[in-house]
Amino acid sequence: MENNPLIPTDLILDFLNLAKEHNLEELTINAPEGDFYVSRAETVYPSAQPIEIIHSSPIPLQKPQSDDNKLFKVISPLVGVFYRGSSPGSKPFVEAGDTVAPGEPLCIIEAMKVMNEVVSDAAGVIESVMVENGRVVEVGEILFLIRKNS
Fold first, then answer.
1. What is the enclosing helix (H) or strand (E) of 59?
2. CA distance 118 to 121
3. Which residue in 81, 91, 96, 103 is deepest, having the highest Cβ count within 10 Å?
4. Beta bridge partners of 115
5. DSSP designation for 60
6. What is the three-state SS of 64-115?
7. pTM summary value
8. What's the CATH number for 53-148?
9. Cα 105 off chain centre by
10. Cβ–Cβ contacts within 10 Å for residue 72, how many?
11. Which part of the chain is CATH 2.40.50.100?
12. What does the alpha-carbon distance between residue 93 and residue 86 come to, in Å, rounded to a whole number?
């Protein structure tokens, strides 16, 4: 069978979500667009190979739909795999309850084998981590809630 290099991203994400929803580690689908194989196995980085981290452009902290003017959300600037730490098994950059400063790393989003570091734009306390480590995130998805300092 001929491989189709132009597989729609939304179709891939649908297959990943289907695998996650049914707690499947692997999924093979025979479809008119072609045969698809999806694996939820954790990405392992060879220790001898350096990981390139690129600082993303500032991510706006937007006021959520609430009356609390000090609670902000950090949103994903791109589609990719959300990582809480710099490498598998490493300590997360931040936990709920941690104090953060502007420019401090919050997470990494891997997109097309490039590690994009997401940094805080504000000083405050991490109220909540909204995404599970290793999960695919969408553009605009809430990653963290930060209670901004007065």
1. none
2. 9
3. 81
4. 53, 110
5. P
6. CCCCCCCEEEEECCCCEEEECCCCCCCCCCCCCCCEECCCCEEEEEEECCEE
7. 0.56
8. 2.40.50.100
9. 13
10. 22
11. 53-148
12. 8
